Amino acid sequence: MRVGILTGGGDCPGLNAVIRATTKSLIHQYCAEVIGIEDGFLGLIERRIRPLDVQSVSETIALGGTILGTHNRANPFQYFAANGADISDEVVAYVRSIGLDAMVVIGGDGTMSIAHRITQKGIFIVGCPKTIDNDLMHTDRTFGFDTAVSTVTEALDRLQTTAKSHGRVMILETMGRYAGWIALEAGVAGGADVILIPERPYQLEEVIRVCQKRAAQQKFTLIAMAEGATMRGGAMTFSPIQADSHDPLRLGGVAHVLREQLQPHLASEVRATVLGHVQRGGTPTAFDRILATQFGHAAAEMLAEGQFNRLVTLNSNRIDSVPLAEVAERVKTVPTDHPLLKAAWAMGVSTGEPV
Ligand code: F6P
Asked: Whole-model pTM?
């Protein structure tokens, strides 16, 4: 068996742990030959590949980022450097010419959508779900998410002490795109007083009421806010940055918008912190290393068993899989009655809605 591995889309902690687990499992268990494809699908377009052996993936389990590199915009069906032309047939021909029997594609919904289209041209693929956003359908968890939640929780812990010292309202903006998973989990773990997520649009009057009440009692308020959060009836806040991906729109800056909205109504100072890519970098947590290792190993086993064109998933604490077609271009948002929301409400946490 000769297998190619690529990482596509934005990076996240745990990618190297998957590359390592897949490579070692394939070599140790199946004597396979493993080929690393550089910079996601761009490596297939520009023909940049290199052999991976046990040595080349050793000592990478704790390493953030991806040793293979990644690319946000390299889509063979719409190649940016060829005026959006479809060069997928050339890519498929290249995959065949280098003798790949199958590929492991590690990525999020955009990457899986491309992977799915490539499978329709006869290439065998197993997908592995990555993203700090945890917004991929049919998997309870994506690796990278736990690390991001830990990073945001630590930031909230730090903001809490300074908020308390100065009697301020501190807003922390998290990533997460159109889903509120990071803000919800980190908000609960970091003891936020207000958690604002896209799935539950907030009312400004209610956030003001909570901050005023806390100013009179505890003096400070900690707000965890997802980048995709909106005011009821309002729109999402997009950053002026145009990303180098198939979806050029980037969220960002909503914490500053809320700060401007709140300040005129509050005696306390309101400050906003946007954590940004700090959430995506660095060492994966033990949980993410383990999940990534299980995903990578499962991908190798699926290849050996001929279970192609499926995405490895975590389903009720068991490693499972679903057809790639079922996850492509779909987003898993927080259910509006999620048990963690109910627990947060019971703790007195506000989601910016009247109780
Ligand atoms: O999907 C992961 C993610 O980090 C989102 O949370 C965020 O909105 C986006 O990627 C940022 O992307 P970029 O690094 O391209 O600006």
From this structure: 0.97
